[in-house]
Design a protein that fits this description.
The chain starts with a helix and ends with a helix. It is globular. It is 75% helix and 0% strand. It has helices spanning 3-18, 22-34, 40-58, 61-67, 69-91, 108-120, 124-132, 143-171, 180-203.
């Protein structure tokens, strides 16, 4: 891959990663609930899902899923349902999303697993990568090194954007967690955001 093409890939990845979605909401929620540093576990889980999506597209399965309405809808509804479930649980939570000072924090494995599921159950990512990746891959050259470069670039850019943009932005909301009403408000805001993203996943085609 030429330097100019790689720079175009980086620019596209930055724009895509900066677009708010389920991953951004999940990252901000983790940052408020467990602190900026520990929010990396949820981000890493999201990256594992991205790697799986890229591997699926690279293997040609993405083409099958994108052409099968039944398969696409099944995964789409499961993903939407999971996001709605997270939203309802967050909305009804009695403790704060952002009680950073609390002694009991969510285990790293739990955050990693949720991040994985949030991105893994979004079939639109497969369709997106199916349209996105060919722009940066040449069929007349070895595919594995090209997909490795694209995958590594996508993951590194997304980690940096999630951690230093969305997770850092969430830290500005920590003041709200000092009061019970503020904690309740944050829980409800993030709960509604999760539900909203889940509904969009179903309704927007």
């Amino acid at each position: 891959m030429s330097v100019s093409l790689w720079l175009a890939l980086v620019g596209a990845c930055v724009v895509i990663s900066c677009t708010p979605g389920a991953g951004a909401v999940n990252t901000m929620s983790n940052s408020l609930g467990s602190g900026w540093a520990r929010s990396i576990w949820g981000i890493l889980g999201q990256q594992l899902a991205l790697v799986v999506h890229i591997a699926i597209v690279a293997a040609g399965v993405g083409a099958l899923v994108s052409r099968s309405q039944v398969a696409f809808d099944a995964i789409r509804y499961v993903g939407a349902g999971y996001l709605v479930y997270l939203g309802i649980r967050q909305f009804r939570a009695s403790t704060a999303v952002g009680a950073v000072a609390q002694e009991v924090r969510e285990p790293a494995w739990s955050m990693l697993r949720r991040g994985l599921l949030v991105n893994l159950t979004n079939p639109k990512a497969i369709v997106f990568f199916l349209a996105f990746l060919p722009q940066f891959v040449r069929l007349d050259r070895p595919l594995v090194p090209q997909y490795a470069v694209v995958g590594a670039t996508v993951v590194v850019v997304d980690v940096l954007v999630m951690w230093f943009l969305f997770a850092s932005a969430a830290r500005g909301l920590v003041r709200l967690t000092s009061t019970e009403s503020g904690r309740r408000t944050l829980n409800r805001v993030f709960g509604c955001l999760f539900v909203g993203v889940g509904i969009l996943l179903v309704t927007v085609h």
